[in-house]
């Protein structure tokens, strides 16, 4: 910084404008362990050694079952010894049950080590600790049970202050390698922000079923899982960043750096360009803040011929105070997550590029900070959106739909076949579905398709209707629309109706409300950490993959 002598007032201004830009290198990043796979062939287990071994256990008619995952590698005798020890500790194998035992007590049952005595037993044990993770009934095993078990097990890895982060070998990959890798990696994610990171897990090696010689499917699975994990972690990092670090200008330049590094095209509209082009929704929401708004547009595969175009849109309110319709103070800090939709869209388009999907994708990302400054939009103001529709703003806290209206109208100009939009849009989503289940609305068939995809990946977006009688709730006497309903009911669907007015005819579209699911204000569970969750990155990427494979009708 060039300013060396400053007055008090000047200091304030300087500290505002000199806020360092957020770049891919200085955003606080969460920790994700290094991932690898270990195909189980004859004797392959001989080379497996680590601090921790994770073993799946099941709950059957007679209680604890081990289902052979260890026996295949180290012999039946060892499996029986482990089973006996776990039973003696009261293990049942029920979902999420964690039992930690010293590995030497199991591996010492080798003949050799039994004779050699306690000290050399320790040395000869390939692991220090075994974590047995309950997966419930083995007949009802699903990918999500494995992801959740993998996440719970990896979070149970403990380190003392003096120990290095652990190396982990996991047997969960025997059942579903990708689910195991994703569950372990996402479960191990930790975010330290401005504090020094102290991760517990350094590496995870997932044991997979024996591979045939030309079979490289395990490698492909690992590469695919890595792309998903990286994109989810990126979305989490962005959501976790506080609003003094991540604001429209710094966020836009972060997206530009990150997307261009993957070969994507990026265009950023600054305030003057938003004015020239008539983005009244984004400007109206952003004008109460000293940090001006932006519209970011990212394109993947722009010039590809004969592939469907999918438009992604994500709400990017870097902080939502409510504006003049100010929110109460309690829990307002959670509103750093009000850009969760945009973070998921950024992660998703980067994943599409890294996976080389055969389609075109645009991401249209409106960024604004909703503040109650002296230039802020007032209740009763009328704004004109991109494309010409007007909104009477009766509550400045219903700001997400105002910026999304502009972004959806712009995205539709490119005539996409599909539009996937996501936002932390309404408290009503949580009233209806709870904190973990996104509500999904839009074109019926596409909505149901994306909902099924979401349930398969474990993000569980649930289809919600746009009841026709709610359409009149957002009609205004003085503008095309008003931004809130005066009734208490159906707030999530009222917002969906509002957004539908900006979607062009013939576009298959969905709106995913992730107000609760994008940000975990409680404690960690399964593979979901505290704070940013990365929902709905995996739903969007899996939907893009289904479209690229030609599996989704238009
Ligand atoms: N960002 C909020 C929605 C939200 C609430 C997200 C809680 C995450 C957790 C949104 O901008 C908002 O304030 N919506 C209002 C709309 C209302 C004024 C019609 C709401 O849901 O209360
Ligand atoms: Zn709001
Ligand atoms: Zn909001």
Word description of this protein:
With 554 residues, this protein is of the alpha/beta class. 35% of the residues lie in helices and 19% in strands. The protein contains 18 helices and 21 strands. Helix 7 (143-155) runs parallel beside helix 8, helix 9 (217-240) runs antiparallel to helix 13 (340-355) and helix 16 (444-457) packs across helix 18 (537-548). It starts with 7 loop residues before the first helix and ends in a 6-residue tail after the last helix. The structure holds ligand BES and zinc ion (2 copies). The site of one zinc ion has 5 residues, from strand 11.
Q: What structural category arises from helix and sheet content?
A: alpha/beta
Q: Provide the gyration radius in Å.
A: 26 Å
Task: List the uncertain runs.
Answer: 1-16, 111-122
Please provide the count of β strands: 21
Please indicate the percent range of residues in DSSP E strands (runs of 2 or more). 15-25%
> In percent, how helical is the residue content?
25-40%
Question: First CA to last CA: what distance?
Answer: 54 Å
The total count of helices amounts to 18
**Could you tell me the mean pLDDT?**
93
- Name the bound molecules: ligand BES, zinc ion
- Approximate shape: elongated
Largest sheet descriptor: 9 strands, mixed
Family: Belongs to the peptidase M17 family.
Active site: 327, 401
Binding site for Mn(2+) 1: 320, 397, 399
Keywords: Aminopeptidase, Cytoplasm, Hydrolase, Manganese, Metal-binding, Protease
